[in-house]
Amino acid sequence: MLNITGSPVEGDNFFGREEELGRLRRALEAGNHVLLLGPRRVGKSSLVAEISRLLSNDGWSVVTLDVQHVADEAAFLHELLDSLKRSDVELPVLTHIEGAVTAFRRMFRGTRVKGAGIEINIGDEPADWETAAGELRKLIPTLSGNARRMMIAVDELPVFLSKLLAESDGVERVRRMLDWLRSIRQACGTSLPWLLCGSIGLDSFVDRHSLSSTINELQPQTIGAFDEETAVQCLHRLANSAPYTLHLTADVAREMIQRVGWPIPYYLQLMFHALVELPQAQRSQSYPAVADIEAAYQTLLGPHHRSHFAHWDSRLGDLLNPQELNRVRTILKHLCGLPEGSEHGVLLNVLAAESPHADTRALDRELRDLLEFLERDGYLIRIGDTFAFRSFLLRDYWKKRFA
Ligand SMILES: Nc1ncnc2c1ncn2[C@@H]1O[C@H](COP(=O)(O)OP(=O)(O)OP(=O)(O)O)[C@@H](O)[C@H]1O
Ligand SMILES: [Mg+2]
Q1: Sequence-ordered alpha helix ranges (H) in 212-306
Q2: Which of 59, 134, 196, 275 has its CA 20 to 30 A from that of 76?
Q3: Is the pLDDT of residue 114 over 90?
Q4: CATH of 17-222, one of 3.40.50.300, 3.40.50.10490, 2.10.10.70, 3.20.20.370
């Protein structure tokens, strides 16, 4: 098992998650369309990569696409078509579908550059969304008629939808995209399941834009942190895998878990990396010992490790409008200095102090929504009426960076 901090992992580098894999497999084998939900960086893409690998080993055809860099509908259709071609699915001759998608793409780009006076010749091909998207809607459900079982996994759909939302007629375009995807899933029935996930929850996204009906047939499945025993085993596995042979006692492993405060595999990999690469000069006599954990933890808070947490910051801007973003930043800035957290009422006062003219009831409603979002995405934990940073590591990063 390699010490990987960032990219999704699978195979020998994928640890644990037997229960989640079993649940996911049963759902997909029964033909359910699944929405995988979990806090940021918890290991969703890795779980999708691993189940895809396992199903492929069992003879399934698995089509995977990551649409985080897709900018518009035309690029989305193109990406979907491309991922079908990259997979081992037996495809019919696609000439007319490719023609429709390409024509739509050219026309689409054309409408965008027309203002600059550039003429686009789209020829005689039909070049609209209905034609291009309709061709794919017809094609995809027929693919499940092949002898091999098939699955389509889409990662980062909400990131793409957020970009679309910011365009003109954004809400309508997002609705059209979600309706179209739903109609394909319906046509696929139980013979071709879809698996969706993303670093922004699709459930939060549709909730916020009153589009819940476009995904209400998806079966939600959740993934959370490791329990303590699994986290200890994961650290031991890392310590005993080449190129490292680190003698990690159970006490040291538990101290690492205590220190990060929330054992998602990403933080364990980060802590392990920090410990194993701790400069000689900073190591204790009995390295690796409990005494070394604090030094390792502090290196993670240094400037070189910012990129590991920047994601938590930047994804906020993908989902929230500027006013919500300001409020969330105020909440997080307030909470990063308070390990024990703050009560809802205190947070309301903090927001009210920044917006003295806001209607208190409206502000209270807004706060509730934002806290729910922060809890769902793994920034905060709620205990009774008190909210606090879920991970000590993220809290200390936030404090260092923004307080
Ligand atoms: N099962 C696992 N075994 C070992 N490490 C894991 C596992 N799952 C996740 N990780 C660690 O967490 C990191 C992030 O994993 P992944 O990209 O799957 O998370 P994610 O939930 O998709 O994140 P995001 O919310 O940013 O999309 C990986 O680079 C790896 O360090
Ligand atoms: Mg991911």
Answers
A1: 228-239, 250-260, 265-276, 290-300
A2: 59
A3: no
A4: 3.40.50.300
